[in-house]
Design brief:
alpha+beta, 3 helices, about 30% helix, 7-stranded antiparallel sheet
């Protein structure tokens, strides 16, 4: 009987020494076992950093192209809003007799690009602006070959 009392006392001592598990200990246990990735100094995640870096790279490339072409080709990129702007042609100066410019605003959404195009033609101070309907570009694959599908709106009706 004394051996049984000893075992019972030892079992109660072990249970009492272990303490009660609390719900507050679980997050600390997870943080210790699986530490989280540290946040950047700016508080942005990796995807936002990548968007910002690609935007900076695209705009830097656009500045170089603009400088080399003497502002005949201007490219601007906004990675966060998934937009780009491409301008090709001369600027509307009073010194030039002929003005020709094509402006494209591109929105990248749902796997395709929607393009809004404007064309400016000018002689002296008279400028004619032609706004084309929005058209879309989408990647396609046919029998292992990759290409680009152009979607032109021939008829568009809204209700």
């Amino acid at each position: 009987m004394p051996a049984m009392r000893t075992r019972l006392v030892v079992a109660l001592a072990l249970v009492g020494a272990g303490g009660v598990a609390r719900a507050d200990d679980v997050p600390r246990l997870y943080d210790r076992l699986w530490p989280r990735m540290p946040l950047t100094p700016y508080g942005r995640d990796f995807g936002e950093q990548l968007e910002d870096q690609l935007t900076a790279l695209g705009n830097q490339l656009g500045q170089h192209v603009s400088l080399l072409s003497k502002d005949m080709l201007i490219v601007r990129v906004d990675g966060r809003r998934r937009r780009a702007s491409i301008r090709l042609g001369t600027t509307a100066d009073r010194e030039r007799n002929l003005t020709f410019r094509i402006e494209n605003d591109i929105d990248f959404t749902e796997g395709f690009a929607r393009v809004n195009t404007r064309i400016d033609l000018g002689i002296k101070h008279h400028v004619f602006r032609l706004e084309l309907p929005d058209w879309e570009m989408a990647p396609v694959e046919y029998r292992g070959d990759y290409g680009v599908e152009l979607r032109l709106p021939l008829l568009r009706r809204t209700f």
